[in-house]
UniProtKB/TrEMBL annotation:
<dbReference type="GO" id="GO:0008836">
    <property type="term" value="F:diaminopimelate decarboxylase activity"/>
</dbReference>
<feature type="binding site">
    <location>
        <position position="322"/>
    </location>
    <ligand>
        <name>substrate</name>
    </ligand>
</feature>
<keyword id="KW-0457">Lysine biosynthesis</keyword>
<protein>
    <recommendedName>
        <fullName>Diaminopimelate decarboxylase</fullName>
        <ecNumber>4.1.1.20</ecNumber>
    </recommendedName>
</protein>
<feature type="binding site">
    <location>
        <position position="359"/>
    </location>
    <ligand>
        <name>substrate</name>
    </ligand>
</feature>
<feature type="domain" description="Orn/DAP/Arg decarboxylase 2 C-terminal">
    <location>
        <begin position="329"/>
        <end position="418"/>
    </location>
</feature>
<feature type="binding site">
    <location>
        <position position="277"/>
    </location>
    <ligand>
        <name>pyridoxal 5'-phosphate</name>
    </ligand>
</feature>
<feature type="active site" description="Proton donor">
    <location>
        <position position="390"/>
    </location>
</feature>
<keyword id="KW-0663">Pyridoxal phosphate</keyword>
<dbReference type="Pfam" id="PF02784">
    <property type="entry name" value="Orn_Arg_deC_N"/>
</dbReference>
<dbReference type="InterPro" id="IPR022653">
    <property type="entry name" value="De-COase2_pyr-phos_BS"/>
</dbReference>
<dbReference type="InterPro" id="IPR002986">
    <property type="entry name" value="DAP_deCOOHase_LysA"/>
</dbReference>
<keyword id="KW-0456">Lyase</keyword>
<dbReference type="InterPro" id="IPR009006">
    <property type="entry name" value="Ala_racemase/Decarboxylase_C"/>
</dbReference>
<comment type="function">
    <text>Specifically catalyzes the decarboxylation of meso-diaminopimelate (meso-DAP) to L-lysine.</text>
</comment>
<feature type="domain" description="Orn/DAP/Arg decarboxylase 2 N-terminal">
    <location>
        <begin position="72"/>
        <end position="325"/>
    </location>
</feature>
<comment type="similarity">
    <text>Belongs to the Orn/Lys/Arg decarboxylase class-II family. LysA subfamily.</text>
</comment>
């Protein structure tokens, strides 16, 4: 049974041996630039500010919990990726966080967009992303979604199954179009943070397996259909990856299939997409790579493998989501209760929880946290930051140090919550999903508003 799914009982915490925990940081008031959005700093009175705005003002104006997103940081990260990958294509993975404002920023900064549902596609189109800059993903796209994507003229549909080949070919024929497609190949690499596993098979729902010959069969089928134009192969190997070794294996295997396709069908496919999954710093212990290092490593790998296979180097694309939006936002909470369990830890309850950040409960994700409404010289105390939901696994930050004078009403913030927090937010206990507030040059504006009781009651038609 996984730790996050243990039944309610006395052992809600992990009673670990003394000395297990990393020691407290030397300065609890420091806001480590590696984990906080770029314009976050402390003002003279000790209150944290972002884009020059004190968090206390954000709390007064927008309430808590709230996601605060640094627009300049988002744009700067977009530019860092497009600069690093000049001559290649960067597709922002919309699943990390998508809104109309985000689409506009992406469009202005020259990025492409990866969507994986009809509704993500709707947001992208509504906010004016040119259809040819959109890639459509997903392991079970409905016929209606496919028709919509083909009709809109998306630049790329990434095929994920034999059935989908037929559906997309049919939709394109009906629309009188030739749809550009890639095939998602499952390469037998599972990568996460500093580890990766290379196997012959991969037991997962996405893509068509390379080792079983399914990917090669998919290529055969697609090449036989006039309404589809096969432009390349796609592979995505994991998430929160720091180590490039997994990409090395995946690129070698994908290029091997490109070579087989050339040998069998006499065609050299012009594109290869190595997916997303690049890691970010959630805590000060994380040390992610910069986009230019990643770009160089991937280009070197692909160039080397293509040279070995005697292939022209295809146009490369990547799909970072977390690495662009993750570090640009933090979640602002108000402390509600502080409950000391002598000899164990102190539970700090905030006004949100697993409804606005499910990642800790779902993946045992690690986060850090800081007191942001003031500085404190009090001794550090070991805390667990928890939400207000009726679930003992409702944990936001599993183990973190906060000052021991922390009190109800203080504002605390969890950095690096830009990715997979608002996009995975839910209404457990009829929680109202928090707003996303974009800040820039001393101004703050809501880009996704807070849900209201009326929103929820309107869905509940009795
Ligand atoms: C196909 C594909 N591309 C890109 C991504 C984005 O991953 P990340 O946000 O970790 O970069 C994902 C995430 O699941 C994915 O499945």
């Amino acid at each position: 049974m996984s730790r996050s799914a243990h039944p309610a009982g006395p052992r809600h915490g992990d009673v670990l041996p003394e000395g297990h925990y990393t020691p407290p940081p030397t300065d609890l008031n420091e806001l480590d630039p590696r984990v906080w959005a770029r314009t976050v700093t402390r003002g003279e009175d000790g209150t944290a500010t972002v884009a020059g705005i004190p968090v206390s003002r954000l709390q007064e104006e927008f309430g808590t919990p709230a996601y605060i997103l640094d627009e300049d940081d988002f744009r700067a990260r977009c530019r860092a990726w497009t600069d690093a990958f000049s001559g290649a294509d960067v597709f922002y993975a919309g699943k990390a966080f998508l809104s109309r404002a985000v689409v506009r920023w992406l469009r202005e900064e020259g990025l492409n967009l990866d969507v994986c549902s009809g509704t993500e596609l709707a947001v992208a189109l509504d906010a004016g992303m040119p259809a040819e800059r959109i890639a459509f993903h997903g392991n079970n796209k409905t016929s209606a979604e496919i028709e919509r994507a083909v009709g809109a003229g998306v630049g790329r549909i990434v095929l994920d199954s034999y059935q989908e080949i037929v559906r997309v070919a049919h939709a394109a024929r009906e629309a009188g179009k030739r749809q550009r497609v890639q095939i998602r190949v499952t390469v037998g690499v599972e990568a996460h943070t500093h580890e990766f596993i290379a196997t012959a098979h991969e037991d997962q729902k996405f893509g068509l397996a390379l080792q079983d010959g399914q990917a090669a069969e998919a290529v055969r089928r697609v090449l036989g259909l006039d309404s589809l134009e096969l432009t390349g192969l796609h592979s995505h190997i994991g998430s929160q990856i720091f180590d490039m070794a997994g990409f090395e294996v995946s690129a070698r295997r994908v290029v091997g299939l490109l070579r087989d396709i050339r040998d069998e069908h006499g065609v050299e496919l012009p594109e290869i997409d190595l997916g997303g999954g690049l890691g970010i710093a959630y805590t000060s212990d994380d040390d992610p790579r910069e986009p230019h290092e990643i770009a160089k490593a991937l280009a070197d790998i692909v160039t080397r493998e293509c040279a070995a296979a005697g292939l022209t180097v295809p146009r490369l694309s990547v799909e970072p989501g977390r690495a662009i939006v993750g570090p640009t936002a933090f979640t602002l909470y108000t402390v509600g209760t502080v409950k000391e369990l002598p000899g164990l830890r102190t539970y700090v309850s905030v006004d949100g929880g697993m409804s606005d950040n499910i990642r800790t409960a779902l993946y045992d994700a690690e986060y850090s946290v800081a007191l942001v409404s003031r500085v404190s010289d009090a001794e550090p105390m070991l805390t667990r930051v928890v939400g207000k939901h009726c679930e003992s696994g409702d944990i936001v930050v599993r183990d973190a140090y906060l000052p021991s004078d922390l009190a109800p009403g203080d504002l605390i913030a969890v950095p690096a919550t830009g990715a997979y927090c608002r996009s995975m937010a839910n209404n457990y206990n009829h929680a109202l999903r928090p707003p996303v507030v974009a800040v820039k040059d001393g101004a703050a504006r809501v880009i996704v508003r807070r849900e209201t009781e009326e929103d929820l009651l309107r869905l509940d038609v009795g």
